[in-house]
Amino acid sequence: RPYTLEVEFNARDASLAHFIATQIGFGRAIAQPFNTGVVVYECEDAQGLAFIAWMIRGRLIDTHKVAQLETHVIPFVARRMIEYGPQFAELPSAEGLPLDPFSTRWLAGLMDNIGVFRLTNDPEWVVRIELEHRDRQVLEMVREEFGGVVGTRTLSRALLGEVTRGALTRGAEAAADMHTAEAGAGQGQH
Fold first, then answer.
1. pTM
2. Are 110 and 141 contacting, i.e. CB atoms less than 8 angstroms apart?
3. DSSP codes joined into one string, 123-173
4. pLDDT for 92-127, tens place per residue?
5. What CATH number has the domain spanning 106-187?
6. Is 116 helix (H, G, I), strand (E, B) or coil?
7. Domain with CATH 3.10.28 in the chain
8. Crossing angle for the helix pair 46-56 and 14-24, to the nearest 10 degrees
9. Which long-range contacts (CB under 8 A, 24 or more apart) does 16-22 make?
10. Coil, strand, or helix at residue 76?
11. Which domain of life does the UniProt lineage start with (predicted)?
12. Are 51 and 88 in contact (CB under 8 A)?
């Protein structure tokens, strides 16, 4: 097995793992043993890896994942994929982050994977979107695009914005709100 791409899903999303395997046409979805609650989609076929690399080109933001793709997958695929057609000739490159990552829908995938979206109406309507990510560069890029705050709790979080009664709280106002909330929470803990 030269290279295998694996994507883990919660067991509740097993149908999604099977759907992806069907749509790509390569790979398989396997339930992990010992009741771990995980289903893994894995693909080791060169044509399947080429198709996946082609689909996610320019959509990866995590520099570690981009480096893995460029170091391992692309050279492996390039050596085996010349005969599969021109659509695989434009494989992704790790020439730095995409110029406009927000046009590639990666943020929707990030939100779906690790985001928190809250809508509350007590005492007033509030929409809060939070992201957790180990790579602070990713969170800073989101903050620069949408405003909000990057803070530290267990992991870095980006507060993209808070909508309260139709007004968008961003930047310094969001930072002040978050600082006040953290200070208030810290006073009760001794």
1. 0.48
2. no
3. SS-EEEEEEEES-HHHHHHHHHHH--EEEESSSEEEEEEEEETTEEE-HHH
4. 444 444 445 566 666 666 666 666 666 666 677 766
5. 3.10.28
6. strand
7. 106-187
8. 100
9. 17/41
10. helix
11. Eukaryota
12. yes
